[in-house]
């Protein structure tokens, strides 16, 4: 495991910047352990919703966590608006940094994360393999 503190700058796309980290460090697996900062535009998909909801304004990132793979990111975030109202959900593309985003990632060069269609959930779910080909536990 390799810890990687990261700071994003104004107008960066949060999700895109995190995907670029994998390519830059030549790894296929990472976790976002925590993130704080601010956004001027958030795209969150709420539980069970078919599409993301756009939120605009001065938004504070209260927490951000998730997994990163070459097939995409699975990120969840809680944000607060200028009145302190909190929203949370799945991070979609188009979350734009307002002033800063301070993140702690852990790179996992000994693992490969991919997203594979799950017959039960019907979604592309995380598939975990380590460098010797052992698949991660599924909880079943």
From TrEMBL:
Taxonomic superkingdom: Bacteria
InterPro entries: PPC_dom
Keyword Metal-binding part of the UniProt annotation: no
Keyword DNA-binding part of the UniProt annotation: yes
PPC domain location: 1-129
GO MF terms, alphabetically ordered: DNA binding
Key words of the record: DNA-binding
SUPFAM superfamilies recorded: AF0104/ALDC/Ptd012-like
Pfam family, one: PCC
Gene3D superfamilies named in the record: Hypothetical protein, similar to alpha- acetolactate decarboxylase, domain 2
PANTHER family, per the entry: DNA-BINDING PROTEIN (PTHR34988:SF1), PROTEIN, PUTATIVE-RELATED (PTHR34988)
Name of the protein in its database record: DNA-binding protein
Biological source species: Undibacterium terreum
């Amino acid at each position: 495991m390799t810890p990687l503190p990261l700071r994003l700058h104004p107008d960066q796309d949060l999700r895109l910047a995190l995907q670029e980290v994998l390519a830059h460090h030549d790894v296929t697996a990472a976790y976002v352990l925590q993130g704080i900062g601010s956004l001027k535009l958030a795209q969150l998909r709420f539980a069970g919703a078919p599409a993301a909801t756009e939120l605009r304004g001065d938004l504070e990132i209260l927490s951000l966590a998730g997994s990163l793979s070459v097939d995409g990111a699975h990120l969840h975030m809680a944000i607060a608006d200028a009145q302190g109202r909190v929203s949370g959900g799945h991070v979609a593309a188009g979350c734009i940094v307002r002033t800063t985003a301070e993140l702690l990632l852990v790179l996992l060069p000994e693992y490969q994360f991919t997203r594979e269609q799950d017959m039960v959930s019907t979604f592309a779910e995380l598939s975990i393999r380590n460098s010797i080909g052992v698949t991660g536990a599924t909880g079943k």
